[in-house]
Design goal:
Elements (H helix, E strand, L loop, with lengths): L6 H13 L13 H4 L24 E4 L5 H10 L2 E4 L6 H8 L4 E4 L7 H4 L7 E4 L9 H6 L3 E3 L6 H16 L2 H9 L17 E5 L3 H12 L3 E5 L11 E2 L3 H7 L2 E4 L13 H6 L4 E5 L8 H10 L2 E6 L21 H5 L4 E3 L8 H21 L24 E8 L4 H9 L3 E10 L2 E9 L3 H12 L4 E7 L1
Parallel strand pairs: 1-2, 1-3, 3-4, 4-5, 6-7, 6-9, 7-8, 9-10, 10-11, 11-12
Antiparallel strand pairs: 13-15, 13-16, 14-15
Helix pairs in contact: 3-14, 7-9
This protein binds nicotinamide-adenine-dinucleotide.
């Protein structure tokens, strides 16, 4: 057994540990799964396949804003790209100046990539949104100009599921109220209307990435899980899918919402739905603010129909951190803030170090796969095209990436240009106004490649042509 460490020494070593630049993933005293799990790479390295790249990856210039996670910077560094990195977003005039020159820009939610800003980006081929949403980017303008946009919609599913589970217990034990009372110096030891969650029913509305993770976690606590989804989805564990929303509402002690924002989900929980819930049940909304009718919820809490609620998302949210979560955002906010057993959090369901790290890995890999191989799988505004690799020892081959307007006759023109050569494989897909063709051509020399490139560049409906070796 090792001898005990004196407190003075322990606090010194803890300070040193937290200053260490290597601890970038988590400052938690316990290690996270990311510390031990192997990090996914851009693609599984296959010795039989040739690694493709543009003429020179050193020529790929990236503008990376808003303090994107180190995992992404590591990927870009490994690939040899030139990265200009900023911790913040940039004022529009500076952004316009900087975007002129780069092939890739990486942003989070604060940088607005409007048509005006993008019109100055003469070399841009891809945008990485290192977040869930993409409404900060004019996706249509980007697609029409051959700019492929990637995001990371599901890397934080586990984080949301874990927080939801914490709130289920928090509501059941009135933890929020007790914590607030203690901070105000009030000792209020009580057990009335505080419950264990074991044996209670959790109703999940929307059994997608988050809902299904939550289902597994809740069953581990001994909860019964019911779920409702518009799709017929395989149940995990012992959970059960029910046919209607009414059924899930009527049978659950806790109802938790995990649906996307659509016209159908707008105010899907209002007075009529709350009336169907058990007396003294709890409602949790960690999906989108528009899904719950807030006046109906406030009324139900006032009447004691519901015993509590947890909200992470709101009909309107402040744009920045600070003391702006106030009544002018939406009318019932001040009343909601004053209510008992109501947990309010600032849209942090997905905000963990692990989620940020995973987002960095996913989006940077998508970007480098697109730059180096042309693969657009996972793009949000663009045809999704991928081609298996060229053989490892294959010389004199080139990969053609041809983005063009989606109009009749283009493929005939392109195939005429390529038909003098050996087309090993090709694939093409379209989405809206834009189409994307990938083709591997073998037995070509430099003059052939130059000629193919020039002919493709001169086709009338071309948007961007790229060649990879
Ligand atoms: N609080 C946060 O920080 C945070 C973080 C991530 C995601 N979210 C939100 O959580 C929600 C769920 O995310 P996800 O990743 O699980 O999405 P997902 O797309 O994986 O799952 C959504 C599920 O809802 C189902 N669905 C759609 N319309 C429905 C309807 N009318 N009735 C019942 N089911 C319906 C879909 O079939 C799907 O199975 C989204 O709204 C997302 O924006 C919030």
């Amino acid at each position: 057994m090792s001898s005990p460490v004196p407190i003075s020494q322990l606090s010194r070593s803890l300070k040193q540990a937290s200053l260490s630049p290597k601890k970038e993933v988590s400052t938690s005293p316990t290690s996270t799964y990311l510390d031990s799990a192997p990090r996914p790479r851009a693609t599984t390295f296959d010795r039989s396949k040739k690694a493709l790249k543009p003429f020179s990856t050193g020529d790929i210039k990236m503008l990376i804003l808003e303090n994107i996670n180190q995992t992404a910077l590591d990927t870009f560094h490994d690939k040899g790209y030139q990265v200009e990195f900023y911790k913040t977003s940039l004022p529009e005039d500076v952004l316009i100046e900087k975007i002129k020159d780069v092939q890739v820009i990486g942003v989070r939610s604060k940088t607005k990539l409007t048509a005006k800003v993008l019109s100055h980006a003469k070399n841009l081929i891809a945008i990485g949104c290192f977040c869930i949403g993409t409404n900060q980017v004019d996706l249509e303008y980007a697609a029409d100009h051959g700019i492929c946009v990637f995001n990371s919609p599901f890397c934080n599913s586990r984080s949301v599921a874990e927080m939801t589970l914490a709130e289920v217990i928090g509501l059941s034990r009135q933890l929020g109220d007790r914590v607030m009372e203690m901070h105000q110096g009030v000792w209020n030891k009580k057990s009335a209307k505080c419950w264990e969650v074991r044996g209670k029913t959790l109703g999940i509305v929307g059994y997608g990435h988050i809902g299904s993770q939550l289902s597994v976690l809740a069953e581990a606590l001994g909860m019964r899980v019911l779920y409702y989804d518009i799709l017929s989805l395989m149940a995990l564990g012992n959970s059960e899918q029910v046919a209607t929303l009414d059924e899930v509402l009527g049978e659950s002690d806790f109802v938790t919402l995990h649906v996307p924002e659509t016209p159908e989900t707008r105010k899907m929980i209002s007075t009529a739905q709350i009336a169907m819930m058990k007396d003294g049940a709890y409602l949790l909304n960690n999906c989108r603010g528009s899904v719950v009718d807030i006046p109906a919820l406030v009324e139900a809490l006032k009447l004691g129909k519901l015993a509590g609620a947890a909200l992470d998302v709101y009909p309107a949210e402040p744009r920045k951190n600070g003391p702006d979560f106030k009544g002018d955002l939406f009318p019932e906010l001040e009343e909601l803030k004053s209510m008992k057993n109501v947990i309010l959090t600032p849209h942090i369901g997905g905000s963990t170090e692990e989620a940020q790290s995973a987002i960095g890995i996913e989006v940077s890999n998508a970007l480098s796969n697109y730059i180096n191989e042309g693969t657009s799988t996972g793009a949000v505004n663009f045809p999704e095209v991928a081609l298996r690799g060229l053989d490892w020892d294959q010389q004199n081959a080139v990969r053609i990436l041809y983005i063009h307007q989606n109009v009749p006759g283009v493929l005939r023109t392109v195939n005429q240009i390529l038909s003098d050569h050996n087309i090993e494989k090709q694939f093409s897909d379209s989405r809206g106004n834009v189409a994307y063709l990938m083709a591997d051509i073998s037995n070509v020399n430099l003059d052939d490649i130059k000629s193919i490139y020039e002919k493709l560049e001169n086709t009338p409906y071309r948007i961007i042509t790229r060649l990879l070796y």
